[in-house]
């Protein structure tokens, strides 16, 4: 027993169980995020006897959290001192040691925050039914062990957009609870958007009266044409009292809330309320659809006065050192046409509108610095020069993060490729509507926030990472949870766990067990562990299709005749040889019980399958799919998940694709697709040249310029289809095929992503 602590507060909890009831012995099944060191020891700690909790004032928050947690489970709390919190100044601030012995539970930390994380680990060792008041409390025996743990990154965050869709205070608290359970310490609260202003500002009542409400909302996807609307008003805002309540709630869980007040772009809702803050002075409405809008703050004195007054009230509500000021996707067309803006540029010696944005951001930074605060912004704040003390939140890949770190600016990594949880997480066509893209659990888990291009000295400026949830297509709390879980579990391990301790297969086993805890917490998680992944492979012996599942201890059963598999169908043991077109259907079974959904994949066994292919440029590392071979493997990509493994993405580059069929043969047509989704900066190419060559590499006929066929589906995937004409040569037998793809180029003003390089995404090249 420890000596009596200074200012100790002693509590005892008594389990309402029949002590003669046989104990249920719990074994250690792992926790999330994976701790740094876990040492299993002999014996168990019984929770059937009286157990006390002792903590000093140094551990008031973590100690009270544990007591509240036990009370919620239905446990009676009285005085006692058998579970102890011990101060250990040798440990770092967020580090802890947790020891479960046969006769005690001991938590060591140098800070209340470190002890709080020890409590979260203990919480996950306890049974899931402790997450809610249990009808029947059992006697449990916990495994004896010692955990020594510390985070990899200082910044461990999650974001939530409430501008597009707003959620109740109770849900915001529930979201913060989930972050705390997973040892995340930052909540990035995206409070303002073109579609709605969500924070009460008393000096400017029109923000609540006008900017917080839109007359209607887009129905379906932005890419659906023509746009349809629901005709129903939507909006709301958080009162200052509600925000103070949430901030206090987060503080008790060691979660810092960073508010985001967007500027100079994504400000149409504000300009709808106060048109004089724009460049034109014309009245606009709060945006009713998604995207990027040209009405942005005009950099004049009235605007800065407004923003400084707003930020004063924001700072009164949020004690965080950092204030997020957005800075992303700010079209410059109105600035270019604005005499006041052009005069300001001339007077300040600014060469272009990008430097004008830097002037804007720097003025805001100086104001916030004068109040003892720091700014953080999306990576566009690097354009035109970076404000002196700014922290960069890097979302457009890693190049900006690398540049910022090399300038010794702090960086938070949140690239779209690995951190945007509004992307699809499964290839299942029944998934709820999402913005597009494809971000499965494994890709999140394998994210390394430190770009390999950085030296160890430069890497020190990578502060951490966060997952982002943009809510254009998430109108309900249930859908937010579905998109967040379990990917947030993977992100927690990305930012907490030492990379040497990470193991995806082990993580999946822990996720499967964690489902029971999520159910007890009434969290609507996505379960894709019982889905099947397929991959076309080929070697000198021919092509085959490989099936695998994330879940262990299960059997895959499949058919090739288009029928649904059952317990009498073929058991999958090795890759399935493919020599003709076929439809593979497969399902996971545990014993005779089917799990998950039926997997289905059509294999188009065309003449290109198994050929040799080369591309003169390397696909972007975030969208490298199955490599060049994936373009001729007989499998077409999804119509809406441009990030799946069948699509290759190239950013702002022309590409040349060469295919060697191995021998000369007749070719009747070539068919391929280019994704087109302007909301994601993805554009069909300007042109595609198709050429054919014989076995002597002599061109057959002329290069054909393919005319795009735009199908009428919502995603506007472009099909290029060509019937090969009679060649002006002795033979029409083709061995080599070449495609020259000209990138769309720089995205013009008026379109989403204006001024940025366009993406080219290409799919299966079908040769018949």
List the uncertain runs.
1-20
Strand content: 25-35%
Major beta sheet summary: 9 strands, mixed
Structure class: alpha/beta
> What is the assembly state of the chains in this entry?
single chain
Report the total helices: 17
Q: Report the CATH superfamily of the largest domain.
A: Glycosidases
What is the domain tally? Answer: 4
CATH fold name of the largest domain: TIM Barrel
How many beta-strand elements?
43
Q: CATH class of the largest domain, anyone?
A: Alpha Beta
The radius of gyration is 29 Å
- Estimate the mean pLDDT confidence: 91
Q: Distance between the terminal alpha carbons, to the nearest Å? A: 79 Å
What is the 3D shape? globular
CATH architecture of the largest domain: Alpha-Beta Barrel
Helix content: 10-25%
Present the secondary structure layout.
Layout: E1 9-14, E2 24-25, E3 37-46, E4 51-55, H1 60-72, E5 76-78, E6 83-87, E7 96-100, E8 105-109, H2 112-125, E9 140-149, E10 155-161, H3 169-181, E11 186-190, E12 192-193, E13 196-197, H4 206-211, E14 213-214, E15 218-219, E16 228-229, E17 234-235, H5 240-251, E18 256-263, H6 268-273, H7 301-317, E19 322-326, H8 333-337, H9 339-348, H10 353-370, E20 374-378, E21 391-394, H11 399-406, E22 411-413, H12 416-419, E23 423-424, E24 436-438, H13 441-445, H14 456-459, E25 462-467, H15 477-484, H16 487-496, H17 504-520, E26 532-539, E27 542-549, E28 555-559, E29 570-571, E30 576-578, E31 582-590, E32 593-603, E33 612-615, E34 648-651, E35 655-666, E36 669-674, E37 687-693, E38 704-705, E39 709-710, E40 718-723, E41 733-742, E42 759-762, E43 766-767
Parallel strand pairs: 2-9, 4-6, 6-8, 10-11, 10-25, 11-18, 18-19, 19-20, 20-21, 21-22, 22-25, 23-24
Antiparallel strand pairs: 1-4, 1-5, 3-9, 7-8, 7-9, 12-13, 14-17, 15-16, 26-27, 27-30, 28-29, 28-31, 31-32, 33-35, 34-42, 35-41, 36-40, 36-43, 37-38, 37-41, 39-40
Helix pairs in contact: 1-2, 3-5, 7-10
């Amino acid at each position: 027993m420890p000596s009596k602590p200074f200012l100790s507060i002693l509590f005892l909890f008594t389990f309402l169980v029949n002590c003669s009831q046989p104990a249920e012995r719990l074994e250690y099944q792992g926790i999330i995020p994976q701790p740094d060191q876990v040492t299993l020891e002999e014996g168990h700690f019984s929770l059937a006897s009286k157990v006390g909790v002792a903590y000093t004032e140094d551990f008031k928050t973590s100690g009270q959290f544990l007591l509240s947690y036990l009370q919620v489970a239905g446990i009676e709390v009285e005085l006692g001192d058998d579970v102890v919190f011990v101060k250990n100044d040798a440990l770092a601030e967020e580090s802890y040691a947790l020891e479960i012995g046969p006769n005690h539970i001991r938590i060591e930390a140098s800070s209340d925050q470190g002890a709080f994380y020890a409590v979260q680990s203990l919480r996950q060792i306890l049974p899931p039914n402790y997450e809610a008041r249990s009808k029947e409390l059992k006697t449990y025996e916990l495994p004896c062990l010692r955990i020594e743990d510390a985070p990899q990154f200082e910044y461990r965050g999650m974001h939530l957009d409430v501008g597009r869709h707003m959620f109740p205070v109770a849900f915001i608290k529930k979201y913060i609870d989930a972050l705390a359970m997973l040892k995340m310490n930052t909540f990035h609260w995206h409070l303002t958007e073109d579609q709605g202003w969500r924070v009460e500002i008393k000096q400017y009542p029109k923000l609540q009266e006008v900017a917080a409400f839109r007359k209607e909302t887009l129905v379906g996807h932005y890419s659906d044409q023509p746009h349809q609307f629901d005709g129903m008003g939507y909006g709301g805002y958080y009162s200052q009292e509600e925000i103070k309540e949430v901030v206090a709630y987060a503080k008790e869980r060691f979660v810092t809330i960073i508010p985001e007040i967007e500027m100079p772009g994504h400000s149409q809702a504000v300009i709808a309320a106060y048109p004089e803050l724009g460049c034109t002075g014309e009245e606009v409405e709060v945006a009713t659809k998604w995207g990027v809008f040209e009405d942005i703050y005009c950099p004049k004195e009235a605007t800065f006065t407004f923003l400084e007054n707003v930020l004063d009230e924001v700072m009164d509500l949020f004690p965080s050192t950092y204030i997020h000021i957005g800075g992303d996707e700010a079209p410059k067309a109105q600035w270019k046409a604005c005499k006041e803006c052009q005069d300001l540029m001339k007077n300040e010696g600014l060469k272009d509108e990008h430097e004008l944005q830097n002037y804007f951001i720097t003025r805001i930074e100086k104001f916030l610095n004068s109040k003892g605060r720091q700014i953080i912004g999306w990576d566009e704040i690097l354009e035109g020069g970076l404000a002196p003390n700014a922290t960069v939140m890097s979302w457009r890949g890693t190049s900006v993060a690398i540049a910022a770190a090399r300038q010794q600016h702090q960086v938070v990594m949140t690239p779209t490729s690995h951190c945007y949880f509004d992307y699809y997480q499964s290839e299942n066509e029944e998934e709820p509507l999402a913005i597009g893209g494809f971000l499965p659990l494994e890709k999140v888990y394998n994210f390394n926030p430190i770009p390999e291009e950085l030296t160890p000295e430069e890497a020190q400026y990578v502060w951490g990472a966060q997952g982002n949830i943009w809510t254009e297509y998430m109108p309900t709390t249930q859908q937010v949870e579905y998109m967040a879980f379990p990917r947030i579990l993977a992100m927690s391990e990305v930012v907490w766990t030492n990379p040497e301790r990470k193991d995806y297969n082990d993580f999946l086993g822990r996720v499967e067990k964690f489902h029971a805890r999520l159910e007890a917490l009434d969290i609507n998680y996505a379960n894709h562990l019982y889905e099947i992944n397929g991959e076309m492979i080929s070697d000198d012996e021919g092509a085959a299709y490989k099936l695998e599942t994330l879940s262990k201890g299960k059997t895959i059963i499949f058919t090739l005749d288009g029928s649904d598999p059952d317990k009498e169908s073929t058991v999958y043991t090795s890759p399935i040889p493919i020599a003709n077109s076929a439809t593979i259907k497969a399902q996971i079974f545990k014993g005779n019980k089917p799990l998950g959904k039926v997997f289905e994949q059509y294999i188009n066994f065309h003449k290109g399958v198994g050929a040799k292919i080369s591309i003169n440029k390397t696909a972007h590392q975030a969208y490298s799919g199955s490599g060049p071979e994936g373009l001729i493997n007989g499998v077409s990509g999804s119509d809406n998940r441009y990030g799946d493994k069948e699509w290759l993405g190239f950013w702002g580059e022309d590409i040349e694709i060469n295919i060697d069929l191995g021998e000369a043969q007749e070719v009747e047509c070539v068919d391929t697709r280019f994704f087109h989704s302007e909301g994601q900066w993805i554009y069909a190419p300007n042109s595609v040249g198709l050429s054919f060559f014989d076995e002597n590499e002599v061109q057959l006929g002329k290069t054909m310029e393919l005319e795009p066929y735009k199908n009428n589906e919502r995603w506007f995937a472009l099909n290029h289809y060509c019937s090969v004409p009679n060649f002006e040569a002795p033979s029409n037998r083709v061995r080599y095929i070449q495609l020259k793809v000209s990138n769309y180029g720089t995205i013009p003003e008026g379109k989403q992503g204006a001024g940025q390089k366009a993406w080219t995404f290409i799919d299966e090249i079908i040769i018949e």
